[in-house]
Amino acid sequence: MNKKDWEQEQLRLQIVSEKLQEKLTELEPEVLQLYGQASELRKHFWEEVTVNTSTDEDFEESFYSIKQQAALLSERERIHQKRLQQWKSLNRLQKSPYFGRIDFKEYDLNNTEQVYIGLSSFLASDGMEFLVYDWRSPIASLYYDHSPGPASYITPGGQISGSMELKRQYQIRGNQLINFFDASITIGDTLLQQALGQGADAQMKSIVATIQKEQNAIIRNDSSRMLIVQGAAGSGKTTAALQRVAYLLYKHRERLKADQIVLFSPNPMFNSYVSTVLPELGEENMQQTTFQEYLAFWLGSTMKVEDPFDQMEYVLTEQNAEGYEARVEGIRYKASEDFLQVLRNYAEWLSKEGMLFKGIRLQDRDLITAEQMKEQFYSYDPSIRLANRVEKLQEWLLNELKIIARKEKKMDWVSEELDYLDNEQYVEAYNKLLKTVQRDEELFEAAERYAAVHDRIHNFENIGEDNVFDFADQQVDLLRQMIVKEHFKPLRRKVKRLKFIDMNGLYSQLFGEESEYREMAGAEVPSCWSDMREQTKDKLGKRELFYEDATPYLFLKELIEGSRTNTIVRHIFVDEGQDYSPFQYAFLKRLFPNARMTVLGDFGQAIFTQSTLLQGGDSPLNKLYGEAETTLIPLLRSYRSTQENVEFTRSMLPGGEEIIPFNRSGSKPLIQLSDSQEERLKQMAKDLAALKAEGFGSIAIITKTAEESREAYEALTSLGCEGVRLITKETLTFETGIMVIPAYLAKGVEFDAVLIYDASSHTYNRESERKLFYTACTRAMHRLHLYITGEWTPYLHSIDKQLYEAR
Ligand SMILES: Nc1ncnc2c1ncn2[C@@H]1O[C@H](COP(=O)(O)OP(=O)(O)OP(=O)(O)O)[C@@H](O)[C@H]1O
Prior knowledge:
There is one protein chain. The protein is α/β, with parallel strands linked by helices. The strands form six sheets. Strands 1, 2, 3, 4, 5, 6 and 7 form a seven-stranded mixed beta sheet that branches. A seven-stranded parallel beta sheet has the order 22-23-21-24-25-20-26. Strands 10-9-15-16-8-17 form a six-stranded parallel beta sheet.
């Protein structure tokens, strides 16, 4: 860098900073004033409008006065919001006005434009010149996608080509230029090195200054219905996803609001980890949820649904339990595409026979039996869809209930209840009736009768004996009607909520004898069938569902009852996408028919039995919206961990040689061998203290199970380790410090240093747990320690001795 360049850059920075300050000073009173005006208006809203409803004209005038005042208020608030946004983004810019620059000469034009890129756009006061371009603007993509030389970018008006003459990166603090680099191929290794060399945080950081080309492709992809990102551990999938949200909100700012985007996270703690990225970029957060929350929302009122972490614990710890093999086979099978097809076949079969209903009963009597419902159901035209026939049946039932209610009015039980009504209840009943009558058009006629009775009550002395009897009759009739109505109300509610369908029975029925299954499911039974069916039925009997049954159950419910859909959501993001079953994807597609889907995952970290392959012809995701609407972007470079850590961890993964470590050096992973558990713990406590002293702010002791976490936590605390936090599935916030955490909860997050609590073969020996172990090790940014007593886990056997240090 030469002196002249430096001076020019410093001068420009000075100018931009001053202009920013000027604009802020100009805006500040306006923001305050507008806020004041809006809140004054809100406070005195009713004083400013005249409300008079005496005549039609007065009423009309009042109406317009209120309308006018509301419009004024909303306009002030809108302007205030806009100015406030502008003020906030200028404030953000003031901390570092820009981070990059490209000089671009468009073909056919004479001048070269200097494009400075920052967190948001900043226009000169003439409104013509961009002093800073938003990183999401079309021209800014040049910065991420090209190195100096021929370059082009896409605008809404088409492609613009030209030549990039310079690409520069800055480190700026306020109005101080700290450094700048002229980048060539990738965006400044130096800056990326610095960013990655920092300590882990309690919150994920935004990466706009160092977005890599392949990540930019994810962020700006706007054409696919389904975007799949298969990326190695630490390759920036989650980070790219969040910048993508910010990009979409910017690009479609007129149409897309943050609450039309939903992110499915692996666990509630992850929500807190990623929650600050978007606000940091000046955008509102999207909706965040977990799939479990969705299941609880749809099924929670009727069934107790196991959560995925309990399922995981079972798989990891209950190997010796009776029926273990069948349960694990069940988890695999019930998440498979085969079973998805089975449910579709089953629904098809049900459209011809086998529907199960729950009869409608009143006081231990059948009003409408399940058999009658079935007969009625199958009397409808078989070409009508299952869900539509259910709707027809629902109408029929409501009508039948009306007819039955009329008959019930004359029954003895109603007389008995009538006898027990005391005076107060009579009055109360009448008042209630009066209200219902006034509300309910159906009972209009009754209202008239009631009014007549009421009039006569007032002239009671004059009505004579005949009329007294007549009145009494009518009164009784009304009360009878009311009693019946009260009793029928819950029955009608059940019908309206489709509770007459025996969902438990229907799901359970599928788990029949082999020959029955073949007929209903159009498929052969999977292995361990008899145990699997027994386990499933047992659970259903207790109104509980295994996690693996929850989505198929819900899916079947949808096939029978019709889909509930959310048409407002436009984008869904599924992070840790390998951990979702084809069922869950099929369900999400139905639930959000207007949404595009972005799935981010890593098959190398598929720790659940029900994992889904994200790429390749066999991937169910490819088929979900069809190949033409699907784009796959692989990410192979791993940014999180040092080169030494990546070289070590990738060697335990089949196909891991594809993963490219980012060029950041650190110490080799350390394998710490001990003769006893006691010695191991002492060593760990010592290492924790040393790592803390070295300045590492976030250290995780990663265990395999929750039980092991508790054990580690207690042991380390009793050895005097201070400030250790035990993380469980209930933990909602992610914080830095020292924590003990089971591997499956550490998904998606990262730590400065990771200590694998027990890397010996008695803890990790099954092939199915290799990826869990890999996931745990890949959480480390700077340091990785593995503790072993006795035999090493087999996953470490074939690792080149050069890649680690053993002590
Ligand atoms: N372009 C980048 N510039 C700076 N930092 C980056 C970049 N890409 C990724 N990182 C950093 O790498 C780390 C890993 O990123 P992230 O958590 O998004 O990866 P991931 O692919 O979701 O990982 P995993 O699948 O292991 O959970 C984060 O600290 C992130 O800030």
